[in-house]
Amino acid sequence: MTAQAPSAVILVRATRFLPNPATAADNAFQADVPVGESAAELSTRALAEMDAVAEALRDVGVRVHVFEDHDHTRPDSVFPNNWVSTHAGGVVGVFPMYASNRRHERRGDVLEMLKSQYRVQTIIDYSGLEPDGIFLEGTGAMVLDHLSRVAYVARSHRADSHVLERFCTDFTYEPMVFDAVDSGGVPVYHTNVMGCVGTDVALMALEMIPDERRREQVRERLTVNGRTLVEITEHQVREFAGNAVELAGRHADGSARRVMAMSARARASLDPSQVEVIERSCEILAVDIPTIELAGGSVRCMIAGIHLDPRPATADTPTDAVVAINEDHPVTADGRFVHEGR
């Protein structure tokens, strides 16, 4: 197993799902709710898709922590990777969010679970920058190479360069920043829709980087240590082929396996040669989530990977793969940026 592929993840099971009106202006991947479909019908379908993702991950041996969300004012809470990230060495990041109605997605119970079940030394909280109009939406805004310590970032107002520099200093990453636009000149709102980085393979829509010199620099950085690059097209990006994540699971006999989790729609957009290259490195795990994709995100957006060492199991440690916590506690900040774990 590698530092790139976490073996445990956080998912949020949101009982009320709706594409967020507050993010529609800059998220070109959002779609309208089907005509005639009620909010209750939409939520029911989305819940079934959330459960299908959790079950598929458990089936391949990934540990899944599921948090219930019954708050109807958080339409995007199914995408926790935008507000929290975890890192080797016991460090957790908490991030400032662009849309005001997303800022109360941050949950103290998630952080408490991480501190109680994993070795957390420090929580670095950048959310205090929101009043200053400075945002960095976690592993949506950043695609992180945990092996080579590179943060790939498409410029947008959801990825401020100043807080990115601070993050890279605090977490020891090299920033690799570039402009990325679609064929109509619209900036890519989140880097993780245009690509992902795995242990031995990366997917990236280099054609969406208009500066040829920068495009080649990104290519070279992705492949310099022997990683294979699968170039995807803008059309495949719109089918969410870039919104994938590599995870570490287990076979039934306990042996290790790596999977590339993505949506069924994303998998269908890949051509056979691309699939062959990916499957040299890891299995493709595809789950059908058409309702959730209406919100402009896909499987990778749903998953907050846990790159932390687990604490030794105790009598109070859950024995199954799911920890369901119903309480919803907002994060409280004693200081502006750094809070100590236990």
From TrEMBL:
<dbReference type="Pfam" id="PF19420">
    <property type="entry name" value="DDAH_eukar"/>
</dbReference>
<protein>
    <recommendedName>
        <fullName>Amidinotransferase</fullName>
    </recommendedName>
</protein>
<dbReference type="InterPro" id="IPR014541">
    <property type="entry name" value="Amdntrnsf_FN0238"/>
</dbReference>
